[in-house]
Amino acid sequence: MLGQPSGGGESSPRDDAVRLLARREHSRRELAERLAAKGHAPERIAECLDELAEQGLQSDARFAESFLRSRILRGQGPLKIRLELERRGLGREEIRHAFAESEQAGEGDWFALACAALARRFTGPGDTPRECARRERFLAQRGFDFEQVRHALEHAWDSAPD
Fold first, then answer.
1. Staple partner for 143: which of 77, 105, 121, 148, CB 3.0–4.6 Å?
2. How far is CA 74 from CA 54, 78, 81, 92, in A?
3. Is the pLDDT assigned to residue 89 strictly greater than 70?
4. pLDDT level of residue 162 (50, 70, 90 thresholds)
5. Is it the case that residue 103 has pLDDT exceeding 90?
6. Where's the RecX third three-helical domain (predicted)?
7. Single pTM value for the model
8. Which residues contact 54 (CB under 8 A, 6 or more apart)?
9. Torsion of CA 130, 135, 137, 142, to 10 degrees
């Protein structure tokens, strides 16, 4: 009976969606894609997702906040996070709201985050142009913008722990 519907039949879209949401937050688009991959009919998926949203079991806003927080903890920058949220089906307004909430909670100091990520990865600013470029690429690939990269290159090792 573990995870299987009673009676040996196929699971409903709701059963599958709730199972997925029990593990972590998902965006509406992610759930729709996962449920479609399990062979559920598009109209039943839409119906199910509407019900889950009405009941507060699925929320794109909650997903965005959770996703943003987890990516900040991984040391990723705002450009990469925004792109990933868009890819997962969130609109610009939902993304803007999640970033505003994060900033209000004191979680989105991108300059400090870029410094911390750089200092964790490298012991110093680098002695050659090639080493400096490597540090710039590292931060750019993590999703930091030009100003954040420049700031980190200048300040990442200012207050190195003893």
1. 77
2. 32, 12, 11, 22
3. yes
4. very low
5. no
6. 109-153
7. 0.82
8. none
9. 170
Q: Please check whether the domain covering 1-58 is classified as CATH 3.30.465.10.
A: no
* Opening angle at CA 44, ends 40 and 46, nearest 5: 110
**pLDDT at residue 3 greater than cutoff 90:** no
Inform me whether the pLDDT recorded for 114 exceeds 70: yes
Q: Check: CB of residue 142 under 8 Å from CB of residue 101.
A: no
Paired tokens of 131: 């080493």
Give the CATH class of 60-108: mainly alpha
Radius of gyration of the chain (CA): 21
For residues 141 and 146, give the distance between their C-alpha atoms in angstroms, rounded to a whole number.
11
Alpha helices in the chain (DSSP H): 13-23, 28-37, 42-54, 60-73, 78-87, 92-104, 110-121, 129-141, 146-155
Residues 6+ apart with CB under 8 A from 122: 135, 138, 156
